[in-house]
């Protein structure tokens, strides 16, 4: 369902919904779940004589959320159009290397390094979008193919970290205001800008429309190809920003910094946890940030409790499946109620 269709739901259908269901949206649900997780996590960590939400704990959560949040913001845009991007993890590594090698430890090369990394990221996104729209390739296969190309390039040309980020630029990765990293504030600024773009601009509305029903959008005169390509370019630019940020933290580029963290699947998980439909057309950045914070909080709690890595993955999988099942059940109930009214 497109945003335009959502905004024109029959007044009677909206009015007959119980008040609790009208305000209990997926975004509200994900933040309620986040608060509940923080409470439960604080109790569990407290039983060990430690504090989850002290300055160090908050710093850990926000630091984990920054990189994943940037990738997930871009992933939200492509998923809203009914697509997805599996190349982001390798692209994060590639852009970290491009930025670090271009900077080469010189302050005067920071801006060229950042611009070149973002330009390459945008180019990869353009390729993804064109393969999907012009060659009619499935988004899963197309972006997986691009990911394999990037992996091949990285494996052929790099055996470990490369490049040198000047010390001045490393402030981006480590400076903070109290317990809040400056980079986390920049990530939130990107999130607000993305929210504005999706909810307050015509191009953003068009992304929802394409995700809701691409054929209806096409027949309505929307440039569906351009919209999907734009979403993929923006997604890749977000991955490029992540690579630049991680280079500032590491002091150099790292070919597998994105894949080691699993940013491809992790970003999709965060988007889905935030209530965005994988089929597209419904969701948004606000919920995605909530999903990112849930995953970052889970990781921090597990580390404090020294949980086995296998159990970590099991719990994360259960959380994701449960969230998807609840959203699906809620949507099914809404559709049934709509047919009865």
UniProtKB/TrEMBL annotation:
<keyword id="KW-0472">Membrane</keyword>
<feature type="transmembrane region" description="Helical">
    <location>
        <begin position="137"/>
        <end position="154"/>
    </location>
</feature>
<feature type="transmembrane region" description="Helical">
    <location>
        <begin position="59"/>
        <end position="80"/>
    </location>
</feature>
<dbReference type="InterPro" id="IPR001851">
    <property type="entry name" value="ABC_transp_permease"/>
</dbReference>
<keyword id="KW-1133">Transmembrane helix</keyword>
<feature type="transmembrane region" description="Helical">
    <location>
        <begin position="28"/>
        <end position="47"/>
    </location>
</feature>
<dbReference type="GO" id="GO:0022857">
    <property type="term" value="F:transmembrane transporter activity"/>
</dbReference>
<feature type="transmembrane region" description="Helical">
    <location>
        <begin position="227"/>
        <end position="247"/>
    </location>
</feature>
<keyword id="KW-1003">Cell membrane</keyword>
<feature type="transmembrane region" description="Helical">
    <location>
        <begin position="110"/>
        <end position="131"/>
    </location>
</feature>
<protein>
    <submittedName>
        <fullName>ABC transporter permease</fullName>
    </submittedName>
</protein>
<feature type="transmembrane region" description="Helical">
    <location>
        <begin position="268"/>
        <end position="298"/>
    </location>
</feature>
<dbReference type="Pfam" id="PF02653">
    <property type="entry name" value="BPD_transp_2"/>
</dbReference>
<feature type="transmembrane region" description="Helical">
    <location>
        <begin position="177"/>
        <end position="198"/>
    </location>
</feature>
<dbReference type="GO" id="GO:0005886">
    <property type="term" value="C:plasma membrane"/>
</dbReference>
<keyword id="KW-0812">Transmembrane</keyword>
